[in-house]
Each structure stands twice: as structure tokens, then as C-alpha cells.
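Support request, please re-run this one:
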Amino acid sequence: MKIIHFVLISLLLPLAGASAQQQDPASELLSAARQGQVSRVQELLGEGADPAAANAMGRTALMTAAFFGNVQIVRTLLAVGADPNAADKNGNTPLMEAAAFGHLESVQALVARGGNLNAQNAAGRTALMEAAAAGHEAVVRYLIARRADVALLDQNNNNALGEALGSDRPALVELLKKAGAEPPPEPGKS
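Re-run finished. Output below.
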């Protein structure tokens, strides 16, 4: 009896592993985007993978590529109709992801395809706020040049200038002030 169990398990384990490795096209697309596999992304799209498909958190392959700064994949997905303004369950967009991590080329590609400069996530944060908080001067400069709203406030009554002031980034403070940004209201005042 033990031999039969051993033989059955030996035969079934490879099949279980194969089915576990075979993902649905949407999951494969997100995985390939995360890993920077340009040719695999192109292959999956050619096989009909939906560029708008999202995981349970609402994250798309475009968001994943923007997060990791895979600009070739960002451009590929945009070229086949991926929505530059798709938001996950927290309201984060691909532009916010790229800006937060300083991926200027991805930011530029997303804006060129209609990425909303002033979209706010569930916490009221914008791409400009994220870039300023992380000190990505080139991204901040680009977003300002494209007319990102420097006055928008998040749910904590903070703005991009407040982020730059709070993280002691004098170059960004000057850049934002030149663009017309004013310090956010003090707590308790509106």
C-alpha cells in the first residue's frame, strides 16, 4: 500500500507543480511587468492578455511597471491601451507610483498619454506630493512644468511644499515656492 501511495504521489506532484506554475494571463502579465520582462509582456499581450486586468487590490501591470521604473514596459502597455489613470483600491495611479520612486522617464510617458497630474488617492495625495516627499527633484521640476497644482492639500492638510519643508529639502522648497506654492495651513487653522 505504501508503494502505491508513493507512486501516486510521485506521479501527481509534478502535475500539481505545473498547475501551480501556470498562472492566468492577467497574473502572468503582472508578474512579467514586475520582473521587467519586456519580451514576455509583449508575448502575453500578443496572446490576448488584457492590459487593463488588475489583481485583487486593483493593481494593474502598468502600475507595477511604473512602480519599478520599467519604462519600456510602461510604454508597451500604454501603446496597447492601458489606462494611465487606472487607480487601485487606495486610489493610487501609475503616475503616483512612478513619481514616488523618482522614475522620470515613466512619469513622462504616463503624462504624455494623459496621466492626470492632479489625481488624488484616498488620502488626498498627488504625484507631486509623493515626488516632493521622496526628494525627487527632477520629477518635481517636470510635474511643475506640466502644470501640476502645487496648492492641492491632502487629508492631513499638507501639500507638496509641506512635504519638502518636512523632509528638509531646501532645493525643492525653493522650486515649489517659485511655482507659487504656499506653506500648508497650520494644524487647527483653515
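The chain has eleven helices and no strands. The first helix runs from residue 2 to 21.
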